[in-house]
Design brief:
The protein has 480 residues and is an all-alpha fold. It is built from 18 helices and two strands. The longest helix is centred in the middle third of the chain and has 29 residues. This is Trk-type K+ transport system, membrane component.
């Protein structure tokens, strides 16, 4: 039966609307990769919220409350590791599988994963796909305007970077699994159960998430220094960032050929790791609830382990709520800095701290520009670093005040858990599991903004970049 004129017009109209929507989406990916990233992350969180809400995902076969399902989805996709439910007992095998898949998708980055799939299918990347993937490899590309290609990973190298991301993720997680499995079996885990717990631990270490697949957590393995060292290695490799792994893969240990980003990331990471362990050791060595009953070697090792985990790892062999208040502040500062850019870690990033420290040093020395390793750091990078700190501090402050007002909990506990959420660390004083629903939603929003990144978030809400063809008169306000 032939279609009527009205039906033909309706079909044409539907097709036109569909084509216009598709064209707008395609333009959004290049004109504003930041807004596209926020949109995709939000859609993915909604999808995993629905999956976690399934009765089959819960161990008791009941529908998980919306607040808990949403929070778990955000914590999974944002590779945070905080939870409002017992991750071991609440979820069924399906729920654990959803968690495993979610942390790997969230760790790679939605845009990076999409580009990898496109590369596998088409064997090559077009300009549009390269621009999308580049937005994940460098937050400075989050806007839609022209980009200076003097970056860590140039646009022409994006395809190689994506191959490095996919290969390094598979190889590192597989290697960690092989190393972790014997320790689990020796520690009393059933060999068949260890077959899924080992890759679960490996994924949680490399993605810097920190979820635990058993009832007692890492407590039974508190003296297994081999297992704890392997977990630290996984956290470190995940936190340095894929551009750094890419550079190390290309140039190995030839320091002179490393990019400035790689040098700053690794040096700052090592410095913070050592300093953090030193402060934790000094503050906790006589605390009977944490390290006070340990000998010198155990105390030193556990201080380094906790220092590594506060960078974004999320694993812990002690009760974080038993730490001294001063140690919680030190841990909060370490978490706020986080790991490397374009990594599975959160925080303001170590390169942000390095750039600001170099700017302060240059100002104290009276230098006209900020320099490091024979390179000059342009002023736009310094402005972005300052913006990241300002946005991050604002988000943390607002969330801390809001949750503190809702719960009336001790401020040091609230601050620690909020920064842990913002920096996608996953350590908790025990406060998060007891939050009422309004505070749960605030914490979920904090985790989302922290994972998206302050640069991407700012670019997403800002108007498109505009060129200015004139300069305003200069006037210097009094500063300091």
């Amino acid at each position: 039966m032939a279609a009527t004129p009205n039906e033909v017009r309706l079909r044409v109209r539907v097709r036109r609307i569909a084509f216009e929507a598709w064209d707008r989406l395609r333009n959004l990916t290049t004109a504003s990769p930041a807004r596209f990233a926020v949109l995709v992350f939000a859609a993915l969180i909604l999808l995993f919220t629905a999956l976690f809400s399934l009765p089959a995902a819960a161990a008791d076969g009941q529908v998980t409350p919306l607040a808990d399902a949403l929070f778990t989805a955000v914590s999974t996709i944002c590779v945070t590791g905080l939870s409002t439910v017992n991750m071991y007992s609440h979820w069924s095998p399906l729920g654990h599988a959803i968690t495993y898949i979610g942390v790997n998708v969230g760790a790679l980055g939605v845009l990076t994963l999409a580009s990898i799939l496109g590369l596998v299918i088409s064997k090559r990347l077009g300009l549009r796909a390269k621009l999308i993937a580049a937005g994940d490899s460098n937050p400075l590309r989050a806007h839609g305007g022209p980009v200076n290609e003097g970056q860590t990973v140039r646009l022409g190298e994006v395809g190689q970077l994506l191959r490095t991301v996919a290969l390094s993720t598979l190889v590192i997680e597989a290697g960690l699994t092989v190393l972790i499995y014997p320790s689990l079996v020796i520690g009393g885990i059933d060999p068949l159960v260890a077959l899924w717990e080992a890759p679960y631990y490996a994924a949680m270490a490399f993605t810097n998430t920190g979820f635990i697949p058993n009832a007692e957590g890492l407590t039974p393995f508190a003296q297994d220094y081999f297992l704890l060292t392997v977990l630290m290695m996984g956290v470190f490799l995940g936190s340095i960032g894929f551009p750094v792994i890419f550079t190390l893969w290309r140039h190995h240990w030839r320091f002179r050929l490393w990019s400035l980003h790689t040098k700053l990331t690794l040096i700052t990471t090592v410095i913070l790791f050592v300093l953090g362990a030193g402060f934790i050791l000094l503050l906790e060595y006589d605390n009977p609830l944490t390290f006070g009953s340990m000998d010198a070697w155990d105390t030193t090792f556990q201080a380094f382990f906790l220092s590594a985990m506060t960078r974004s790892g999320g694993f812990s062999v002690i009760d974080i709520g038993d730490l001294n208040g001063a140690t919680l502040i030190v841990g909060s500062m370490l978490m706020f800095v986080g790991g490397g850019s374009a990594s599975t870690a959160g925080g303001i990033k170590v390169t942000t701290l390095a750039v600001l420290a170099l700017a302060v040093f240059s100002e104290a020395k009276g230098r006209p520009s900020v320099q490091a390793f024979g390179r000059r750091i342009p002023s736009d990078v310094q402005r972005v670093a300052l913006s990241v700190v300002a946005w991050g501090a604002t988000i943390v402050a607002i969330s801390t005040v809001t949750i503190s007002r809702i719960t009336d909990a001790p401020i040091e506990y609230v601050l620690f858990d909020v920064i842990s959420g913002f920096a996608t660390v996953g350590l908790s004083t025990g406060l998060t599991a007891e939050l009422p629903d309004p505070a749960v939603y605030v914490m979920a929003a904090t985790m989302f903004m922290g994972r998206i990144g302050t640069v991407t978030l700012a670019a997403a809400v800002a108007a498109a970049s505009r060129s200015q063809l004139y300069a305003l008169p200069v006037e210097r306000p009094i500063v300091g």
